[in-house]
Structures are given as structure tokens and as C-alpha cells.
Amino acid sequence: MVKEELVKRSPLRTLEKVLDGGLGKGNIGVIASKKGIGKTAFLVHIATDKLCSDNPVIHVSFSKRTDHIISWYDDIFNEISKTKNLENAIDIYEEIIRKRVIMNFNQQDIDVPRILSSLEAMITSGNFKAGTVIIDGLKIDEAGEKGLKAIKEFAKKLNLEIWISASLKIDDPVFSEKGIPYELENVLDCIDVLLTLQYDNQKIRMDIVKDQDGIGVVNSQLSLDPKTLLIDEG
Amino acid sequence: MSLEKKLRNIGISAHIDSGKTTLSERILFYCNKIHAIHEVRGKDGVGATMDSMELERERGITIASAATNVDWNGTPINLIDTPGHVDFTVEVERSLRVLDGAILVLCSVGGVQSQSITVDRQLKRYNVPRLAFINKCDRTGANPYRVKDQLIDKLGLNAVLTQIPIGLEDKHVGVVDLVKMKAAYFEGNDGLEVVERDIPAELKQEAEKMREVLLEAISMLSDELAELFLEGKEIPEELVCSVIRKGVLSREVVPVFMGSAYKNKGVQLLLDAVVKYLPSPIDVDNFALDLDDNEKEVVLKSDPTLPPVVLAFKLEDGQYGQLTYIRIYQGSIKKGDELYNIRTRRKFKVGRLIKMHSNNMEDISDAGCGDIVALFGIDCASGDTFVKPGLNLSLTSMYVPDPVISLAVEPVDKKAADNMSKALNRFTKEDPTFRSYVDDESNQTIIQGMGELHLDVYVERMKREYKAEVKTGAPQVAYRETISKKADFDYTHKKQSGGAGQYGKIVGFMDPLAEGTYEFVNEIKGGKIPTEYIPACDKGFQAAIKKGTLIGFPIVGVKVTINDGQSHSVDSSDMAFQQAAIGAFRQAYAKAGPEILEPVMKVAVDGPTEFQGSIFGSINQRRGMIVSSVEDGKNSHVEAEVPLSEMFGYSTVLRSLTQGKAEFTMEFLKYGRVPKNVSEELMKTFQEKK
After folding, report:
1. Backbone φ, ψ for residue B41 (5° rounding)
2. Of the residues A112, B59, B346, B600, which has the maximum number of CB atoms within 10 A of its CB?
3. Is the CB of residue B287 less than 8 Å from the CB of residue B329?
4. Which three-class secondary structure string do you get for chain A?
5. Tens of pLDDT along A76-135?
6. How far apart are CA B356 and CA B628, in angstroms?
7. What's the complex ipTM?
């Protein structure tokens, strides 16, 4: 398989169809689940897909070291290229990671304005033409409505698609009857697309809880393979 | 106890400006070798004793590594001062080769900086056991706890505090020793008196807590200690020390000490720790390569009665001639002994043997196993191995990267020319990454090295030490050419009109080679090209890759395969096939998608977050690719890959962009493809020059 085909046949095209064309610029998408289910894998898969279609990505993280994040990308790309039999995988990877910047914040009390000002410095002063920003590990409860609103405004201002992960910490039940994570109920207005991940019968099921059409659980027709953590159809 | 059991060969590695030279100076002072303390950039103009070169004094950095012998309470210590700047890493690495242990110095404010990471990586490469010393605890913003966490997070070391500070910043007066559970104060003139007292009440709880952390961390190394620890019993001091030592030797534990060299705090305890925890030459395995047995590794024994194996690791031009620093890995040597230089295959006699204290020296009659001493008047290069005649062992060849930058130097007059050639001769012997040659075409002398500053320092040294006034050209990046696809050749070299004829025909192909410079494959069957001419073909190809046709730089990454050809019974010759190979190469090269490669540097910029935008911008303007940016409190650490050709003058630019608050380091990363617009520009310039 060659790169163009890889993009065309990505399971993410299915997600875009269900979402009527994808998340879209100026919007915020949130992927929520309990810890250790596969949010980072999902976000890295989305980023890799964007990179393969020549869209630069900024990956924001809050870990102690950046090499963990780099190895996520290495692993996800390796899995994809293995399962899809990608030709010239090494060359393609060398090429796509040139369009990725990792911005890591490891101070303890980082706030949203600080993150956004660093992002803006990277995009404007650094002349890095990002189309997508991944924010993995933001404490949504601390950011609150105000923080998410600021992110949304930022997305509009700089014409970005922003994906954020939300780690759900409370004990079961995590989701309300409508399938909305309790912890995100009061910030739901600031989120354009909300996806959730949960274990279901040996698979990791992905549901669409909110999209442009409104709130209500819809099957995304996608799942994560629990072994490789790659997005899969069905 | 025999000498080699007690001896310590240690180095001090650090980020620039973390106070390494001051610490070295204090160590020398406390060991009673010098009688007054001079500051690095002291007001008395004397300068620290170990910075022997005038130039180093002026810049406040240490460039050359001098080995100094001191004595701490009966333990002889050879102190090897290693240079701190990244441009001189080969010097650092060469010093590391002869160390048995190291002190990693960190600034209590700056913490683990980019240079500390490079230096630590080098220590890892040579498996050097280490202690960490958090210096400058008297400075505003000092936080040794944070630095300890960084040692764990950023360097992945199992760092454990063996001390906690008593007061920080201007209140820093001493440390609590968590092994002895005593407070230590440094009193009297120059902190000469170490006074032991009970732990101050307000630190008691903290000390208990941190001792627990220490014991827990080392308990995995000893069942005996683990048992006592779990049962909550008293653990004897000797046991704790021996387990820490074991952990240091196996490089599983890095004990952390602290203080302020400048304010005379903590240095004596650090010296005690060097004796207690760092290895003697006997504790370390060293290897040599057996040249009679396919360079197989053989273990060297620290036995003074065995035949000597010695490494020359450093040359220096002293007042009285060339001084060669050596480390004795096996056996012992004495005045009048005969040694054999493995590289030059020449015997020589050991004349004067010297023990060095920076600029003062002491004549000795013999030197034992594991020791570091100096020889006078030996003609050799650094990295040479000396053995007892009859042995055929060589100490591991040190990793030497190829130079990435070159500079034309032109002496201003005849006298300068003479002096320059003397200087170059010396420098190339001293530093394997520094090279020089005369360019055939321009007749200019070209010097090559690892970075702008590297070459700058040598140009300065030529002027100061050798009185060779030179003019320099613009620095030139060492480009390479390569091919991107397979291409066939079918070339006949023919000259059969008058005189002796020449005839050779070569058929085959070239394709890209992922690793390495050049490979030659012979697939000729049935003697289409007679076997005796095959080496000539190889030689022809090798001549052809010396200069590419795009911009005249060497070609790398080519595999040439020959599979057919033709010869003539009278007119074929070595010369003819060599010419045919050159022709064949040129024919295929043009079709093989030739490309220009340039050295790409790994650049790390550290600066306050407020200047982040300027830093990003400056990298972007230099065709750089930002790999990551890490924010850590007020500071931002940006890692990027930037072509070397764009990095000229970056230090000045960065300084003015950030009010001098940001710094950067760089090292060679890889050769990368030059973008089309730039390579067109390069080719145009090359054509114009022609």
C-alpha cells in the first residue's frame, strides 16, 4: 500500500462520514474514557492520519519526558504500517514526523492561558502551520468552562481543529443514562464533538455522545483493537 | 594496602558555568596542594590553578584537560579536569576513557541542563560510575530537591540524596549527612574546619524522612540491609556505606551530595565520598584489543608485575617540551624502561617521568598500575598505545566523529607561516577531531573541526601560543553528495591511436547504500574482465567518489556492482581499467538522481519562557525543524534539528533576541538532504567558482 491509499482507506474516514465531514476547523473534540483504555492511542492515530495527509500537527502533553510521546508515535505508526503493508514505511515516517511538533508542559500548575500563549508563539513566531492540535492529558475539571471556552476561541481565531482527551476519574457509574460522562456534563456546551471509549465484549467500543446534530449516543461504527490500540471498523 | 587499591582516578563533568572549575580549585586547596584560593574570574588576576591556558582564563571556561595528583587523607587522587563546552566533547570523551569514576556537578538553580545531558550520556557510554554534586546552594533560587528529581526524570539515574541542606541561598551553612545522621558545618578560615554536631531540631523530621528514602532505594541491592530496614532495626553506618559503594560500582545508584564550592561548603565531605564510594583501578574492568587475534578483547589486569600496557591520552606543549599524559592500565613503568608504540611500530626509552600538579611538576622514578602520570619528550599522538616490546595489544580505539566544518586559514607573513605549521602539527596530534590539509586547487590551508567555536579556539591558540597571525576565510560546511536511485553504466575507455593503446570496458550498475560510504561488488563471470584488473576498477571508482560533480564534495552511500566488461590482450592495463571505472562512474552518477547532503545539528536552546516566540522564530528562519519544546516552570527547553550551514553566528543572534538570557548547545546529528532551492544555489556557486 502507498501513503495516499493509507489515508483513503483509514477507518477515520468512517468517523468523518458519521460526523458529517469530521470535526472541522474552529471546533473542539473530546475523547473521554477511564484511565488506560486508549485515549492517547486514539489521539496519536488521529494525528498520524493528519500527518500522512500533509497536515502539520502540534501535540501538547503534560508528561515528565517527551520521549514517551515520541515512542507512542513510533509504535502506532509501526502497527499501522505493519497491518496495512505500507511501502517505504521508514521514509514516509521520516517525512511525516517533520510536520509534528511536541510541546510538553511539565510545570505543576500550568493553566490554559499559558498553554495557549505557547501554542500561539509556536504557530505565529515559529511559523509552524498547524491545522490540528492534540491536547493529551489536560485536567478538564481544573480548566473548567472558562478554560474550554478560551480553547474554543483560540481554535476559531487560528482556524484549528483541536482534539482533547479527558480522563474520567470517578467510580462507576461513569456515564449517565444518556451516556454522557457525569464529569463532563457541565462543560458539554463548550464541546463540539464528544466521543467515549469503554470496554464492551473484548473490544473497546467508541460511541459518539455529541456531534453537530446534538446530544444522543450514536454508535460510531468504530472500535479500538485492545491489543494494538489501533482504530478498527466494526 | 597496595597503591592501586587506594588510588582514585576521577573526573569532574558538568554543564558550563555550574562551578566545575571552582570545585576543582577547592579540591586542590583542601588537599593542601595550593595555598591560596583563586577565583576563576578572580580579582587578583591569577585565575584558578587548573585553567592553565591564558585563553581559558579570559573566557572563563576550561578547554584542555590537565591531570592533577592530590592526596586526601592518605588516598592519592588523580583529578582530571574535563572541558565543559559541547564543541570540545572529544576532549571530554578522551578524558573519560581514563577515568574510573566521575563527579557530575550540577547547579542548584539551573539543574540538569542540556550540557549535563550530553555529559551524562558520555559517562554512560564509557560506563563511568558517578556521584552527583549539587553546587551553588548559596545562590538565589537554589533547590537541590528539584535538581535531584531532574536527575531521575531527565537523566534516568537512580539518584538518592545522601545529604540535605542546612539552609539555602544566603543562609546555606552546611549539610545533614543522612548516612551518619549528623549535621556538618564548615567553619574557620576558608571553611577548613568540618564541625560535626547534632541535627538541628527543625531538620530532624526531614532528615529522618529522607534517610528512609535513601535506605529504601538501596535496600534492593542488599538482602541484609533490606531485612534490617523492613524490620525497622538500626542499620550500621558501615553497611549503608558498603551498599552505596556497591550500587555506585554497578552504576545502579547515584548518591547525591551538595554544597557550595564558592562558599567552601560541602567539598570535604564530597572528597570523603570519592574515597568511600568511587572505584579504584582494581574495581574496574579494562580491555585491550589483541592485534594477533583479530582484535579480540582481552581483559587487562591491574597487576604491577605484568608487562605494561599504557595509553597516551593527552599531549600538551609545556615550557620544557612535549608532555604526554599517560594512564597505565597494566604493569608498571620506571625510568629507563623500554616501551613500544603500537601505532608507529617504534621503540622508545622512558626518560623523565612526571607527576603533575597543574603547572607544577614532580619528578618520579616509577609509576604503578592504574596511575596517571606524564612523560617528557616522547614523539606520539594522543590515543597511542605503549606496551612492553613483544606484546601486540592496542587499547580500544576511541570514537572519533568526522569533522563537519572547515575554515581556510592564511598566515600573514613568512614567520607566521612557519609558526602556523608548527601549531597545526601540534593540534592535530592533540585532538583527533581537528584536522588540517592543504587544498590542491586553491593552495590554501584548510582546518576542519566539530563546530565554529572549536575552530575559533584553535585560531586563537595559534595567535597566542605560537604567535602565528592568520587571516581566516568564511567557515565552510562539509557537504556530501549521494545518489537516490539505481543507474546502469556501460563504458568503454579506448585510446588506440598512436603509441601504447589503452582499452577497458566496464558494465554494471550503482545503487544507493543505506549505511557506509562505498561498497564494491564484483559479479564478473567467465573472466570478461581478467581478475588482475578488478582491483584497478575498484581503485578507479574510489577515485571517482572523492569529488562529486554537483558541488565537488565527496560522494557517500554508493554501492557499485560490475557484472560484465571486455579487455584487450595488448592494450588493456591497470591504468586503462582505472580510467574506464572513472568514466563509468561519471556516466551512471548523472542518471542516479544525485543529491547534496548537509550536516544537520541537534540544537538545544534553553531560555526563559517569555522569549519562547523569539526562539521558535530564530529556529524557523534557519530551516530548522522544532522537534519538541518543554516548559518547566519559568524555563523553556527547545530541541530542534537545524542545518549547520544556517547556524553560523547563532550565538550572537540568540543573545540579542533574548537579552543574553538564553543559551544553546549543538552537536552533530546526521547528514540530511539539502532542499531543492538551496542545492540549486550551491550548484550555481560551484559552477561560478569553476
Report:
1. -110, 55
2. B600
3. no
4. CCHHHHHHCCCHHHHHHHCCCCCCCCCEEEEEEECCCCHHHHHHHHHHHHHHCCCCEEEEECCCCCHHHHHHHHHHHHHHHHHCCCCCHHHHHHHHHHHEEEEEECCCCCCHHHHHHHHHHHHHHCCCCCCEEEEECCCHHHHHHHHHHHHHHHHHHCCCEEEEEEEECCCCCCECCCCCEHHHHHHHHHCCEEEEEEEECCEEEEEEEEECCEEEEEEEEEEECCCCCCEEEC
5. 999 888 888 888 888 888 888 889 999 998 766 788 998 999 999 999 988 899 999 999
6. 45
7. 0.83
Ranked by mean pLDDT, the top range of B468-482, B488-502, B528-542 is: B528-542
Given a contact cutoff of 8 angstroms between Cβ atoms, the answer to whether B78 and B8 are in contact is yes
pLDDT band at B62; cut points 50, 70, 90? very low
Q: How many CB atoms lie within 10 A of CB B480?
A: 20
Query: Nearest by CB to A104, which of B614, B625, B630?
Result: B630
Half-sphere exposure at residue B134, Cβ-oriented, CA atoms within 13 angstroms? 35
pLDDT classification of B591: cutoffs 50, 70, 90? very high
Residues of B in contact with A118 (CB under 8 A): 609, 612, 629, 631, 636
| Smallest Cα distance from A2 to chain B, Å | 18
| Rounded-to-integer distance, Cα B97 and Cα B90, Å | 11
* Residues of A in Cβ contact (< 8 Å) with B632: 106-107
For A90, the closest chain B residue by CA position comes to B514
C-alpha distances out from residue A88 to A78, A95, B480, Å: 12, 11, 23
Q: What is the pTM of this model?
A: 0.64
Measured between alpha carbons, how far is A224 from A206 in angstroms, rounded to an integer?
A: 7
Q: Which of B344 and B137 is assigned the larger pLDDT?
A: B137
From chain B residues 139-168, the ones with a CB under 8 A of any chain A CB are 153-154
Upper half-sphere CA count for residue B277 (Cβ side, 13 Å) = 31
Residues of A in contact with B620 (CB under 8 A): 125-128
B346 pLDDT more than 80? yes
Secondary structure in 3-state letters for B555-589:
ECCEEEEEEEEECCCCCCCHHHHHHHHHHHHHHHH
Chain B: closest CA distance from residue A7 (Å)? 24
Res B195 pLDDT > 90: no
What is d(CA B159, CA B142) in angstroms, rounded to the nearest whole number?
A: 18
Phi and psi angles of residue B548, each rounded to the nearest 5 degrees, phi first: -75, 165
Rounded mean pLDDT of A176-182?
84
Distance CA(B444)–CA(B550), nearest Å, equals: 22
Residues A166, A172: Cα–Cα separation, whole Å = 16
Q: Which residue matches cell numbers 590515543?
A: B383
Kindly give the pairing relationship between strand B101-107 and strand B8-14.
parallel
Closest CA relative to residue B279, chosen from B167, B402, B92, B131? B131
Single-letter residue type at B556 = V
Q: Which of A76-98 are b and which e, b meaning 16 or more Cβ less than 10 Å from the residue's Cβ?
A: bbebbbeebebeebeebbeebbe
Nearest to B359 by CA among B52, B61, B27: B52
DSSP B489-511: EEEEEEE-SSSS-EEEEEEEEEE
How confident is the prediction for chain B on average, in pLDDT? Answer: 83
B636 contacts in A (CB within 8 Å)?
118
Distance CA B494, CA B504 (A): 7
